[in-house]
Amino acid sequence: VKTLNVNLKDHRYPIVVGKGILADSGKYLDKQGFHTAPIVISNPTVMRLHGATLIQSLQSVYGNISVIKIGDGERYKNHATLMKIYDGMFRVQANRRSWILAFGGGVVGDIAGFAAATFMRGIPYVMIPTTLLSQVDSSIGGKVAVNVIQGKNLVGAFYQPSAVLSDSEVLSTLPKRELASGLHEVIKCGAICSSPLLRYLEQKLPEILKCQTKELEHIVLAAARIKADVVAVDEKETGLRLILNFGHTVGHAFEAAGDFRKFKHGEAVAWGMIAVLEYSREVGLLQAEEAARLIQLIRRVGPLPSISGISLESIWKALMHDKKFRKGDIRMVLLQSLGKAAIYNGIEAASLRSFLRRFIAGSHAFA
Ligand SMILES: NC(=O)c1ccc[n+]([C@@H]2O[C@H](COP(=O)([O-])OP(=O)(O)OC[C@H]3O[C@@H](n4cnc5c(N)ncnc54)[C@H](O)[C@@H]3O)[C@@H](O)[C@H]2O)c1
């Protein structure tokens, strides 16, 4: 079990990564100063697969444990579910000294974190992320949110957890597409600031795809460290933290154009990264061999749903909606070399549009 610390200006907390930490979570949390029972927020899928291990561990330290289960899926990350969580908390007489344990993927983490940020104006919470995506991305950085009809994650807060416990063993039950989706976020971390991580992924991809814990632990630690370091420098996303959006601006547009159903988040990001790599190459920023090498790694992760049927108009519309991507000042994260990203302002809309048209038309070459 390894620990890395997230060092923010006025808050410091550990991310613990390792096999078996779930079974030891009760003892660990007690040692960290959590001496009363948590209110666990999870979903039926995660509870069925891994709930017994968690509850047993917590019960051995805290006695009876209250669990609030929410619906499984992005469509439950909303206001109605939030009300259900508050209701459940009042029912078990939660108060200002209560704390929440979020046990699940990014959906559970985001909404449980938002509940923690707002219940009685803020109570502590701990994350036990159970998807690869949530272990390397959503559990780190304190962005918590719910979706509203106007868009995803539009109501939320920056609210940091007190600890994050990531057990690599729980990832063995993940559906293949979920594992692949998280892997694209790991690739992103390597692409923007760690060529050693990219080399490791190139070498160990077969083991990783077979969910071998040693290799999973290595990449979770490496990617979590990258995100934690970036967030420590720029907690509120005003500068450096933007590089974590590599592949995301275009990726989100694919995700929206696919009505948030066709692509998993990581798959859309994979397409976004391929597009930006091609664009970085086309404008002469990135060497062709480097772009090809990274695209090859992305493709080895698994098949991506096709983008060839997606209209340029729907993508362009989604891009123009993006709060990080405004007409007149198009800003994107581009790659200068593998492991080195930079933020570019003033990208010309017409040239990007023409690039995207050609990219979608030729996308079968990357499928
Ligand atoms: N806060 C942030 O900084 C941030 C960053 C990236 C993404 N997000 C958010 O994260 C969410 C996506 O997270 P996600 O990809 O983890 O999706 P998810 O939470 O929907 O989990 C994916 C699926 O896997 C299941 N699952 C979870 N753990 C499992 C396990 N160990 N074995 C088998 N199945 C398991 C879930 O029940 C669900 O069906 C989105 O809402 C996105 O907006 C937030």
List key phrases describing it.
single chain; 367 residues; alpha/beta; seven-stranded mixed beta sheet; two-stranded antiparallel sheet; 11 strands; binds nicotinamide-adenine-dinucleotide
Explain what the structure shows:
The chain has helices at residues 25-31, 44-62, 79-91, 106-118, 132-138, 176-193, 195-209, 213-233, 248-257, 265-282, 288-301, 312-321, 349-361, and strands at 2-7, 12-17, 39-42, 66-69, 100-104, 125-129, 143-148, 151-158, 163-166, 330-337, 340-347. By secondary structure, it is an alpha/beta fold. The strands form three sheets. A seven-stranded mixed β-sheet has the order 1-2-9-6-5-3-4. It has a two-stranded antiparallel ribbon with strand order 7-8. It has a two-stranded antiparallel sheet with strand order 10-11. The longest helix has 21 residues, at 213-233. The mean pLDDT is 94. Nicotinamide-adenine-dinucleotide is lined by residues 43, 45-46, 49, 72-74, 77, 104-108, 110, 130-131, 133-134, 137-138, 141, 143, 152-153, 170, 173-174, 178, 181, 265.
